[in-house]
């Protein structure tokens, strides 16, 4: 149980870790107990060891922390304050080391499955969590831990997450809470930022999964180059005993080589929809309005599977989740039960009018490969439908997504509605300019509308569909189930795409047919 540590013991520990540690006011450390560690002055209580870090850090935060009872600080620089200070050369490397010592290596009693990749982390982690939860339910065991971009569950509280992967000190605290509440298994999304900025340093994971890689998150605040992005993600193989790899991805050979080169990886397992030689091979894929069925071939067994989420890329995600579950010794029947009822909010959410005239597809896709997969799945679902798409792109990051998504949309439809998607501090119309440039490169005659208001853009696509009277699939991409839109640093509430679409369908069922009659 991590409840407190002696400050002198902490200082001695830091000194044992590196020879360039500088101690300020060390003589004042005698007899002081540390009951909490944090990097946020707003969380400080008496007895806290406060960590000074971050691009936006201010000395005022340290002064505030001391006023609230912080007994010492850790920092890359010394400050003129009365409490003892521990000065380190690299605060990002120091935070996981301190957290591991303070919380006594909680990962040793929690079997962690870490999932990384450009697309599919949230979906796949969600599938694994739903399988582990089903297994816990069947065994009347504590629910598994979950750390993801949607929510975190540490065995006690479920909270909406602000990062895909938390900062190290938050992560270790969550793992310690899991351990202290007899949670023995956890699933975690591991972002490239987390791997690059030392957030998961020292965390022993049992299983690690690599889904796919494609250029994304390239920007001054994320990764300067694709190489930096790719090599950050490959650092996942510093963790784990078993590696689960999706063969149906670009750069698979490099990913496999990195896993093979990692001495801590004892076993490599592969999944595929294309290579029958993979450890988990899926074929005979069929689907209806809401589910897809396929056969899994593994270790000589033939296992029928129903996945309650559409999108054939989700078959790969389900195969990775099944492989992780099997490495956790979970029965196939439990996996089948969980995946047949799996949900993945805002990802391939399909809403159809009763007469089949209009099919809305809500998806979280917001980069090149997810757009390609999305259009491919939508065309498979309703090959004879017209297609319209409503989307935008986030401000302040991953700028390459804009022309990329414009390209893919322009190649797949003439009917494109550009709108806002977390513009943040950027002008949404400037973002639309960059998307439209990508559209025009491949489809000069595309019919591109622009509407800042997202629900307005969806309504326009609906109205245009009504005017044609033709069976149409309207894709609404990029926000999934999100209920806020980031504008000028603030998360503004808006009607989530899937809620507004359901309102439109209700409106159509009540009045739509009359509209079509009026139009003719
Ligand atoms: C580049 C990056 O990852 N930055 C993260 C990092 O920021 P930072 O360490 O520079 O700290 P800061 O936010 O500048 O603030 C300075 C410090 O002042 C402290 N503070 C602040 C106010 C106060 O009153 N008192 C106080 O002590 C804060 O606790 C903070 O530690 O630590 C902060 C938490 O302490 C994170 O919020 C912040 O994420 C920013 C918002 C971000 O956008 N991160 C993205 C790039 C990210 O990490 N994305 C991935 C997903 C994308 C992917 O799939 O790769 C993720 O894992 O979420
Ligand atoms: N295996 C996959 N291959 C390609 N595209 C995928 C795959 N899985 C999901 N997608 C697409 O990517 C979108 C986002 O999926 P998900 O949120 O699971 O990915 P993520 O890795 O968590 O994304 P992010 O890093 O942006 O949070 C989905 O809505 C879907 O369009």
Automatic annotation (TrEMBL):
<dbReference type="InterPro" id="IPR013221">
    <property type="entry name" value="Mur_ligase_cen"/>
</dbReference>
<keyword id="KW-0133">Cell shape</keyword>
<dbReference type="Pfam" id="PF02875">
    <property type="entry name" value="Mur_ligase_C"/>
</dbReference>
<keyword id="KW-0131">Cell cycle</keyword>
<dbReference type="GO" id="GO:0005524">
    <property type="term" value="F:ATP binding"/>
</dbReference>
<feature type="domain" description="Mur ligase central">
    <location>
        <begin position="115"/>
        <end position="325"/>
    </location>
</feature>
<dbReference type="InterPro" id="IPR035911">
    <property type="entry name" value="MurE/MurF_N"/>
</dbReference>
<keyword id="KW-0132">Cell division</keyword>
<feature type="domain" description="Mur ligase C-terminal">
    <location>
        <begin position="346"/>
        <end position="480"/>
    </location>
</feature>
<dbReference type="Pfam" id="PF08245">
    <property type="entry name" value="Mur_ligase_M"/>
</dbReference>
<dbReference type="InterPro" id="IPR004101">
    <property type="entry name" value="Mur_ligase_C"/>
</dbReference>
<comment type="pathway">
    <text>Cell wall biogenesis; peptidoglycan biosynthesis.</text>
</comment>
<dbReference type="GO" id="GO:0009252">
    <property type="term" value="P:peptidoglycan biosynthetic process"/>
</dbReference>
<keyword id="KW-0573">Peptidoglycan synthesis</keyword>
<protein>
    <submittedName>
        <fullName>UDP-N-acetylmuramyl-tripeptide synthetase</fullName>
    </submittedName>
</protein>
<dbReference type="InterPro" id="IPR005761">
    <property type="entry name" value="UDP-N-AcMur-Glu-dNH2Pim_ligase"/>
</dbReference>
<dbReference type="GO" id="GO:0016881">
    <property type="term" value="F:acid-amino acid ligase activity"/>
</dbReference>
<dbReference type="GO" id="GO:0071555">
    <property type="term" value="P:cell wall organization"/>
</dbReference>
<dbReference type="InterPro" id="IPR036615">
    <property type="entry name" value="Mur_ligase_C_dom_sf"/>
</dbReference>
<keyword id="KW-0961">Cell wall biogenesis/degradation</keyword>
<dbReference type="GO" id="GO:0005737">
    <property type="term" value="C:cytoplasm"/>
</dbReference>
<dbReference type="GO" id="GO:0051301">
    <property type="term" value="P:cell division"/>
</dbReference>
<dbReference type="InterPro" id="IPR036565">
    <property type="entry name" value="Mur-like_cat_sf"/>
</dbReference>
<dbReference type="GO" id="GO:0008360">
    <property type="term" value="P:regulation of cell shape"/>
</dbReference>
<comment type="similarity">
    <text>Belongs to the MurCDEF family. MurE subfamily.</text>
</comment>
């Amino acid at each position: 149980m991590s409840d407190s540590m002696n400050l002198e013991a902490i200082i001695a520990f830091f000194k044992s870790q590196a020879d360039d540690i500088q101690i300020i006011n060390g003589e004042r450390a005698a007899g002081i107990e540390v009951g909490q560690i944090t990097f946020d002055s707003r969380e400080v209580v008496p007895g806290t060891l406060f960590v000074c870090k971050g691009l936006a850090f201010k000395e005022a935060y340290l002064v505030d922390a001391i006023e609230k009872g912080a007994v010492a600080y850790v920092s890359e620089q010394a400050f003129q304050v009365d409490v003892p200070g521990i000065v380190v050369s690299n605060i990002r490397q120091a935070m996981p080391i301190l957290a591991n010592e303070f919380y006594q290596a909680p990962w040793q009693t929690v079997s962690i499955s870490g999932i990384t990749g450009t697309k599919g982390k949230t979906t796949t982690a969600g599938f694994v969590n739903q399988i582990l939860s089903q297994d816990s339910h069947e065994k009347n065991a504590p629910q598994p831990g979950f750390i993801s971009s949607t929510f975190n569950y540490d065995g006690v509280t479920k909270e909406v997450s602000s990062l895909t992967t938390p900062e190290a000190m938050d992560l270790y605290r969550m793992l310690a809470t899991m351990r202290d509440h007899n949670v023995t298994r956890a699933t975690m999304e591991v972002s490239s930022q987390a791997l690059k900025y030392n957030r998961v340093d020292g965390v022993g994971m049992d299983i690690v999964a690599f889904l796919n890689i494609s250029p994304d998150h390239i920007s001054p605040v994320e990764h300067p180059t694709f190489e930096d992005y790719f090599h950050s993600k490959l650092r996942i193989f510093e963790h784990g005993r078993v590696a689960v790899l999706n063969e149906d991805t670009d750069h698979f050979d490099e990913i496999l080589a990195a896993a093979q080169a990692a001495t801590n990886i004892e076993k490599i397992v592969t999944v595929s929809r294309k290579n029958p030689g993979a450890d988990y091979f899926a074929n005979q894929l069929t689907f209806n309005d809401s589910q897809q069925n396929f056969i899994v071939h593994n270790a000589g067994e033939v296992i029928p599977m129903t996945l309650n989420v559409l999108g054939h890329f989700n078959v790969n995600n389900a195969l990775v989740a099944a492989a992780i579950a099997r490495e956790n010794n979970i029965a196939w029947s439990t996996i089948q039960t969980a995946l047949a009822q799996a949900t993945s909010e805002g990802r391939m959410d399909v809403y159809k009018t009763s007469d089949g005239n209009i099919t809305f597809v809500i998806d979280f896709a917001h980069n090149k490969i997810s757009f390609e997969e999305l259009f491919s799945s939508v065309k498979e679902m309703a090959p004879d439908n017209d297609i319209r798409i409503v989307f935008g792109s986030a401000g302040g990051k991953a700028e390459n997504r804009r022309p990329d998504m414009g390209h893919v949309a322009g190649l797949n439809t003439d009917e494109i509605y550009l709108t806002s998607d977390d513009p943040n501090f950027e002008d949404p119309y400037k973002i639309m300019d960059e998307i439209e440039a990508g559209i025009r490169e491949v489809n000069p005659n595309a019919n591109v509308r622009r509407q800042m208001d997202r629900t307005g853009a969806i309504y326009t696509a609906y109205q245009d569909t009504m005017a044609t009277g033709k069976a149409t699939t309207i894709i609404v991409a990029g926000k999934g189930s999100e209920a806020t839109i980031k504008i000028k640093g603030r998360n503004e509430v808006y009607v989530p795409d899937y809620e507004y679409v359901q309102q439109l369908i209700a409106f159509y069922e009540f009045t739509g047919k009359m509209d079509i009659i009026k139009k003719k």
